[in-house]
Amino acid sequence: MQVASERALVLAAHTDDEFGCAGAIVRLVEAGVRVRYIAVSRCEESVPAGFERDVLEHECRRCTEKLGIRPEDVSVWRYPVRKFPAVRQEILEEFVKVAREYRPELVLLPSSDDTHQDHKTVYEEGFRAFKFATLLGYELPQNLISFSNSAFVALSDSHVERKIEALNEYRSQAFRTYAAGDFIRSLAQVRGVQASSRYAEAYEAVRLVLR
Questions:
Q1: How far apart are alpha carbons 140 and 113 in whole angstroms?
Q2: What are phi and psi of 83, to 5 degrees?
Q3: In whole angstroms, what separates CA 16 from the centre of its chain?
Q4: Rounded to whole angstroms, how far apart are CA atoms 103 and 105?
Q5: 102, 36 in Cβ contact below 8 A?
Q6: Of 26, 54, 61, 155, which is the most exposed, with the fewest CB atoms less than 10 Å away?
Q7: C-alpha–C-alpha distance, residues 72 and 100, integer Å
Q8: Low-confidence residues in the chain, pLDDT < 50
Q9: Closest of 156, 134, 158 to residue 6, by C-alpha
Q10: Distance between terminal CA atoms of the chain?
Q11: The CATH number of 7-207 is which of 3.30.365.10, 3.90.1150.10, 3.40.1360.10, 3.40.50.10320?
Q12: Closest residue by Cα to residue 161 from 23, 32, 17
């Protein structure tokens, strides 16, 4: 993957939101880019019956490790799910701290079209905190009415397989239709057709900074 950055950051509202950008993570790591990952909530209130309340954090850490992110570069915060708008200033201040300390050149975050209130907050406050960087909004189809797929990351068969294998760590979320391997592969095929590639992920080009 030809990238002009040495430091990338993934902003996820919830553990498992890397469904939208796991392929790009694999390619960035392959290219030698340091990737940090932040999940703002571990979604304890949304854990299905029969699982421990902290299961999503453990699943997230296994998933991101399989994607190639170093364990020390993974942060899972504990903001309450579905209540981000009420604490948006706190989230912004945490993002600003990361921006000053890490200064990522590329940030993957939810798209501006995402209708989930938590994802929308992460997009808006992420834009404010990291507006000096290239910003790409990833696709989470379950939350979209429309989507500006103005940028693509080409993926190979092995990238897609690694993505599916890593996301399979979310055993507590296996009931979700968008978590199914067949869906992940078929969406990658659609985006691949649009990008003239075998597979691809689509992104909203929120901000492009060329250095």
A1: 10
A2: -125, 20
A3: 8
A4: 6
A5: yes
A6: 54
A7: 18
A8: none
A9: 134
A10: 17
A11: 3.40.50.10320
A12: 23
Distance CA 5, CA 174 (A): 34
Tokens 């453990």 sit on residue: 58
- Strands (E) located in 127-207: 134-138, 151-155, 199-207
What is the predicted pLDDT for the residue at 2? 59
Give the three-state DSSP class for 167: helix
Interior/surface letters 94-114, b for 16+ CB within 10 angstroms, e for the rest: bbeebbeebebbbbbbbbbbb
| Nearest residue to 74 via CA among 32, 49, 40 | 40
Q: Letter for the amino acid at 211?
A: R
pTM score, two decimals?
A: 0.96
Query: What does the alpha-carbon distance between residue 119 and residue 84 come to, in Å, rounded to a whole number?
Result: 9
Using alpha carbons, select from 165, 121, 114, 168 the residue that is nearest to residue 142: 114
- Closest of 3, 10, 22, 43 to residue 167, by C-alpha: 22
At position 108, the amino acid (one-letter code) is L
Residue 135 makes CB contacts below 8 A (sequence gap 6+) with 107, 109, 126, 127, 206, 207
With residue 117 as reference, give the H or E element that holds it. Answer: helix 117-129
User: Pick from 40, 41, 165, 29: which is nearest to 106 by CA?
Assistant: 29
Radius of gyration of the chain (CA): 16
